[in-house]
Amino acid sequence: AVMRAxxxxxxxxxxxxxxxxxxxxxxxxxxxxxxxxxLIEAGAVLDKRREHQNTPLLDAAESGAAGCVKRLLAxxxxxxxQNQQGHTALILATGLGRLAAVRAILEHGGVNVNHQSFxxxxxxxxxxxxxxxxxxxxxxxxxxxxxxxxxxxxxAISAAAFQGHIKVVEKLLEYDAAIDLPTMDGRxxxxxxxxxxxxxxxAALVAHGANLDAKSxxxxxxxxxxxxGELRCVExLIEAGAxxxxxxxxxxxxxxxxxxxxxxxxxxxLLARGAKVGTRNNRGDTCLTLSAGRxxxxxxxxxxxxxxxxx
Length: 311
Description:
This protein folds into three domains: 1-112, Ankyrin repeat-containing domain (Serine Threonine Protein Phosphatase 5, Tetratricopeptide repeat), CATH 1.25.40.20; 118-178, Ankyrin repeat-containing domain (Serine Threonine Protein Phosphatase 5, Tetratricopeptide repeat); 185-310, Ankyrin repeat-containing domain (Serine Threonine Protein Phosphatase 5, Tetratricopeptide repeat, Alpha Horseshoe), CATH 1.25.40. The chain has 19 helices and no strands. It has helices spanning 2-8, 23-29, 33-41, 56-63, 66-75, 89-95, 99-108, 123-130, 133-141, 156-163, 166-174, 189-194, 199-207, 221-228, 231-240, 254-260, 264-272, 287-291, 296-304. Keywords: ANK repeat, Repeat. ANK repeats lie at residues 52-84, 119-151, 152-184, 185-217, 217-249, 250-282. InterPro entries: Ankyrin_rpt, Ankyrin_rpt-contain_sf.
């Protein structure tokens, strides 16, 4: 009643506050459905941009105001409007798990579910990174492309694998996501999960036939897990058949990585499984020389395994 009275008395419907916010901006962000109706009826500019180039629709989507989203879209708000990062309402709602808003946008239609922001971020990738399983499911059902890559070469499943979001990974696997598609630096989903100790994800990827010996700049998933000291993932990869001696472009094996980064437990496990102590990398270093001066425990482990003291 107060708002109608003010408008009837001549209040400017699109008067801006600092930051270029209008009444519609505040109503949309505040999930005030009735106020949004009144302001639309009064002729408020639907796609008025405030700072960061957000429109009322973007604000409503970000705050999870599904009712406001529906009203703004029905009145003609641009479903493809973007903020200064290139994010649409669909991307913002998905990343924050605003499922009702996501569904409202998808049901309205006319939205590009595969739109990518200025860094190549899509709604699916954003949702996967944040672990928003239900939103990811809604996007996939709406036809989102499962293997879209961002500027770093990440896909939805590589993002979910890195974060350890097993439910998202499982959902993407249902849609045949490419698990061996490398990022710009050559890492696959298995590299990303193993290097961060995401055991459930590693198990799922291995079960789906991930390439155990895929090579990136830092070597195989086994080498990356060894470098990071992720013992359980090292065990899982070896049990699955990963090559102990596969080296990266610099000649580093998994054992060398474990020794250089002072992960004694990993080094001892690799040695127990038959890793070679006498292998040299491209600079002529062995596990012994890499351990010397860095880890007395790793040094002791390779000596006990039979490394020649003068190697």
